[in-house]
Design brief:
The protein is α/β, with parallel strands linked by helices. The protein has helices at 6-9, 22-34, 51-62, 77-83, 101-110, 133-144, 164-167, 180-194, 200-210, 214-227, 234-241, 246-257, 261-273, 278-297, 311-315, 320-337, 344-355, 357-380, 383-409, 415-466, 470-483, 489-497, 515-523, 525-539, 550-563, 565-600; strands at residues 40-44, 90-94, 121-126, 150-156, 171-174, 197-198, 231-232, 498-503, 507-512, 544-549. It has six domains: 6-174, P-loop containing nucleotide triphosphate hydrolases (Rossmann fold, 3-Layer(aba) Sandwich), CATH 3.40.50; 180-241, Helicase, Ruva Protein, domain 3 (Orthogonal Bundle); 246-358, Zinc Finger, Delta Prime, domain 3, CATH 1.20.272.10; 383-436; 467-563, DnaA, N-terminal domain (GMP Synthetase, Chain A, domain 3, 2-Layer Sandwich); 574-603. It contains 26 helices and ten strands. Mean pLDDT is 78; it is low at 359-381 and 442-455.
């Protein structure tokens, strides 16, 4: 028989054997026992956390002929067929490769047929977020009201890509990352069953690399077994995973906290030479610094075990701010790794920065404070402050003029002094005039700019209102909730402050609750571009967005109605006359029908 990977060989066959998802498995078991099985489920969570396994177990339990407390018996013909992948009533579909409208239409056509072996037909659609928008729309009605014998189970690793209209039609279960302790226990159980020796430190390294995914953990375990069949060794685990030895990472962190740059660089280069990657070293330093910080705050009562002798004693006097700075700098270096091919450089820069950060802080502090003071001073100088300065300068001019007059009355003979004093007065007067003129010019420019922007914006709003229709506005409002499911966090925040109030065939007016957001959204072309593209995608029509502040909307609408009053009244009269004509025509028809019935009785046959 061909070799079978560990994650396939040891895939859970019952709910109780699923690791780390007890809340979800208990809920599914109770639903089966009580007969309260919904028509559609959505399993969402990180990779390798048991979504597909739970879906297969649930499908097997639904068609099991000998249920054992909500668990499949794994002995009846239906359970055996499901384990072998031969159960005709369980269809597993990969949405990544079957994401078109035609595939979903085929499912929609087949769900009406009754199951052949079991009680339910179960459709498991894996990676459902890969379906196209057309496929999602084709699935909507069937997903909401399928036949009684059909159950849909959708699985996804990216819930944010699934439309809100799909999520609202399902029972959603959020699978969480499996804890490191649970991963280690499961791997040890499997190795004990396979009768393979192992070192606890090696299992801990694998669990850390797996990052909460059981499939990843078993895949690495499989790789180590290929590397060395008889046992799982710590050194082999480090070499395969690219992690640094834990005791070496502790020494690197101690060197950083003790500001010993040479030792930190030397130890790091040695680990890189032994096969550790820059990313893994930074990850381990962040994890170790966090555990050290927790240990210090817990007065040494933490469950974390350090390998280096007297490690806790050596770090207990380090200020807490040092740990925060190290963790922040390490996260920055991790982010920098994504943008460079020389992976060693961000790591070395991080080591030098964290071991010399106090000196760097002292050097940059005066410059930073000066920059902050300048930045704070600039926005504070508003027109009111400039007016105060101009007033003070004028006051100085008056005082100097009075002094000159007094000197002249006393008939001072020192003409040079009077000359210099006159020059000073003239210079001061000129400065005051220039400052006042600059202030006035700045005000006029700002006012002209705001007036021009306001006029341009009002023209656009008037243009939309002249051609606005209820159908276009309703089309925008209908897709507004769907935008929440596809936009990012910052874009969803924009939706909360925007509201469509009028729409024409090619433009839509949106009022903004806050002036600050209106200014930000008006200047951010990328943000408006994303919103415009998503609206066009959902409505299948291009609309240009015209923004207006909430405080100005009522004024603009009132001015428009006043300026177009005659036109609005004319439209109302036309609509009214059409209604009256229609009503009069209907009344005439009724009179004709009545006369015909009076003349001919029941022989009259009325056709519309």
């Amino acid at each position: 028989m061909a070799y079978q990977a560990l994650y396939r060989k040891w895939r859970p066959r019952t709910f109780d054997s699923v690791v780390g998802q007890e809340d979800i498995t208990n809920t599914l078991k109770n639903a089966i026992k009580r007969g309260t099985v919904s028509h559609a489920f959505l399993f969402a969570g990180p990779r390798g956390t048991g979504k597909t396994s739970c879906a297969k177990i649930f499908a097997k339990a639904l068609n099991c002929t000998n249920l054992q407390d909500g668990e499949p018996c794994n002995q009846c013909s239906n359970c055996l067929a499901a384990d072998e992948g031969a159960m005709a009533d369980t269809m597993e579909i990969d949405a990544a490769s079957n994401n078109g409208v035609d595939e979903i239409r085929e499912i929609r056509d087949k769900v009406k047929y009754a199951p052949t072996q079991g009680k339910y037909k179960v459709y498991i659609i894996d990676e459902v977020h890969m379906l196209s928008m057309g496929a999602f729309n084709a699935l909507l009605k069937t997903l909401e009201e399928p036949p009684e014998h059909v159950v849909f189970i959708l699985a996804t690793t990216e819930l944010q890509k699934v439309p809100a209209t799909i999520i609202s039609r399902t029972q959603r279960y959020n699978f969480k990352r499996i804890s490191q302790t649970a991963l280690e226990q499961r791997m040890k159980y499997i190795l004990d069953q396979e009768k393979i020796k192992y070192q606890d430190k090696a299992i801990a390294v694998i669990a850390q690399v797996a990052d909460g995914g059981m499939r990843d953990a078993l895949s690495i375990l499989d790789q180590l077994l290929s590397y060395e069949k008889d046992s799982i060794e710590y050194d082999a685990a480090l070499e395969i995973t690219g992690f640094a030895a834990k005791e070496k990472v502790e020494q690197i962190l101690l060197a950083i906290l003790q500001k010993d740059a040479a030792a930190a660089l030397s130890l790091t280069k040695a680990e890189l030479k032994n096969g550790a990657s820059s990313k893994n070293i930074l990850d381990e330093l962040i994890d170790l610094a966090t555990n050290a910080l927790i240990t210090i705050k817990a007065d040494g009562q933490s469950e974390h075990n350090f390998l280096s002798a007297d490690f806790v004693k050596q770090i207990e006097n380090v200020p807490l701010e040092r740990y925060f700075k190290v963790i922040t700098a390490a996260n920055t270096a991790l982010n920098d790794l994504r943008f460079t091919n020389q992976q060693q450089i961000p790591l070395e820069v991080f080591l030098i920065e964290t071991t010399n950060e106090d000196q760097a802080a002292e050097t940059t502090a005066p410059a930073a404070s000066a920059t902050v003071s300048e930045n704070v001073a600039d926005p504070v100088k508003r027109p009111d402050d400039l007016k105060t300065e101009v007033t003070a300068l004028k006051k100085q001019v008056v005082e100097l003029t009075e002094q000159v007059a007094q000197l002249k009355k006393r008939q001072l003979t020192n003409s040079d002094q009077i000359f210099h004093l006159d020059n000073e007065v003239a210079a001061t007067t000129t400065t005051a005039k220039k400052t006042a003129e600059a202030t006035q010019t700045k005000k006029r420019r700002k006012k002209v700019k705001n007036d021009q922007a306001g006029k341009q914006n009002r023209k656009q709003v008037y243009h939309v209102l002249e051609n606005a229709t209820k159908q276009d506005l309703q089309a925008i409002k209908d897709v507004w909730p769907d935008l929440q499911s596809v936009l990012g966090v910052s874009q969803r925040a924009l939706l909360d402050v925007l509201e469509p109030v009028a729409a024409s065939q090619d433009q839509v007016v949106m009022k903004c609750k806050y002036t600050l957001w209106f200014e930000k959204a008006s200047s951010d072309d990328d943000l408006l571009g994303i919103l415009t593209d998503q609206i066009a995608k959902f409505t299948q029509h291009d609309y240009e967005i015209v923004l207006v502040p909430d405080s100005d909307w009522l004024t603009v609408r009132k001015e428009f109605l006043q300026s177009h009053r005659d036109e609005v009244l004319k439209r109302q009269k036309e609509v009214k006359s059409d209604e009256e004509l229609e009503n009069s025509t209907a009344d005439q028809n009724q009179e004709v029908i009545k006369k015909a019935q009076d003349l001919f009785g029941d022989a009259v046959n009325i056709k519309d």
